[in-house]
Amino acid sequence: MTRLSVNINKIATLRNSRGGNNPDLLKVAMDCERFGAEGITVHPRPDERHIRYQDVYDLSKIVTTEFNIEGNPKEQKFVDLVLATKPHQVTLVPDVLNQLTSDHGWDTIKEQDYLKKIITVFKNAGMRVSIFVDPSVEMIQAAATTGTDRIELYTESYAKLFAQGKKEEAIAPYISAAAAATKLGLGINAGHDLDRFNLQFLMENIPNINEVSIGHALVSDALYLGLENTIQLYKRALEVK
């Protein structure tokens, strides 16, 4: 079964826009779990423009499903935060400072030595590690020698082509990438621009995805459909017929 982890960054963005604590990020996280989400994802950035570092400490005390923290480990503050809060999973993303959103995976060949070292740090602390990668067989083959437990397939290109009606072209590199990951013994996560329209086709073609983390589209849908109903719609889209 593929797990749905709800990224609550956009909830924090809304809260921060007016100050105070409305909406209450912790309550939203607990409600997501109550409504059926199997995990909570956050991606704190150095400028704390959405998730604040204190949010991560607070969430680590109340999340009862799976807690996943995403971020760039080249920021020492991020490494310290993860080691202090010990989430179930840390997802390593090669963001640059002030980047609007994640837009590429790791070059697992050039960054091989660095990734081996930092992954060892997190695994020695008892966490599962996933690394963000593009749907490239070559990059996944190199990811397998870093010591990571999983790869997270960066799905923006899939989502863009799917929206243009090019479903088969969209999914082809992801099928190859997932097959390579499975052959190499890596778990598979997926995320970025996934929504309730493109999710089911992804699952029909790659049913062995362990987890998807979805934030922007899910929160946007919830404005119209309600949070509880939206989470159920996304979980339904994850079911392979």
The run of helices and strands is: EHHEHEHEHEHEHHEHEHH
The name of the CATH superfamily reads Aldolase class I
> Low-confidence runs (pLDDT<50, min 5 residues)?
none
CATH architecture term: Alpha-Beta Barrel
User: How would you classify the helix and strand content by structural class?
Assistant: alpha/beta
Strands ordered across the widest β-sheet: 1-2-3-4-5-6-7-8
The share of residues in helices is: 40-55%
Overall mean pLDDT stands at 95
> How many separate structural domains?
1
Radius of gyration: 17 Å
Report on the architecture of this protein:
This protein has 11 helices and 8 strands. By secondary structure, the protein is of the alpha/beta class. The protein has one domain: TIM Barrel (Alpha-Beta Barrel). Strands 1-2-3-4-5-6-7-8 form an 8-stranded parallel β-barrel, surrounded by 7 helices. Helix 4 links the parallel strand 3 (66-71) and strand 4. Helix 7 (156-163) runs antiparallel to helix 8 (167-183). The two termini are 12 Å apart.
